[in-house]
Structures are given as C-alpha cells and as structure tokens.
Amino acid sequence: MAYSHTNSKGQTYYLHSKDVTLRGGRQQTIYYFAKEVKDGALDDLPSGKQVVENGRTGLPLLKNA
What is the pLDDT of residues 4-48, one digit of tens each? Predict the structure, then answer.
C-alpha cells in the first residue's frame, strides 16, 4: 500500500519517487505527491524526511527532518 497523507482540506495524496538525469549527467531521485497511485509509489517515507504542507495550497511536500 502506498504511503498516503491527508491534508488539512481533507484531500489524500500518495508519495511517489522517480530517478531523473540532470543536465550535467548526474542521477537524482525526486519525490512528489499525486492524488492517484501510479508507477513509482512508495510504501514508506524515506529516512530523514518529513511531510510538511504548503499553507496556501494544502499540497504536501517532503522536507529534511
């Protein structure tokens, strides 16, 4: 089951990750929340991260703990 977070507005978002290649050729993992479970959904929070919420939009974001 994918990690889910329900924001203050009652909307549920699911955590996903994706490996991308930056312009310099370096690989980096990005984390994002989506309203539906898609490929790349994570079962748990990455270590050292915490969920915070954008106060204006209610969109959850990952931040270093």
Answer: 999 999 999 999 999 999 999 999 999 999 999 999 999 999 999
Cα-Cα-Cα-Cα torsion 41, 52, 34, 4, nearest 10 degrees, comes to 50
Can you give the residue range of the structural domain that contains 11?
Answer: 4-64
Identify the three-state secondary structure at position 41: strand
In the block, which residue shows the tokens 């690989």?
A: 27
64, 38 in Cβ contact below 8 A? no
Distances (CA, A) of 52 to 15, 34, 38, 44, 57: 13, 15, 21, 15, 12
3-state class of 46 per DSSP?
A: coil
Length of the chain: 65
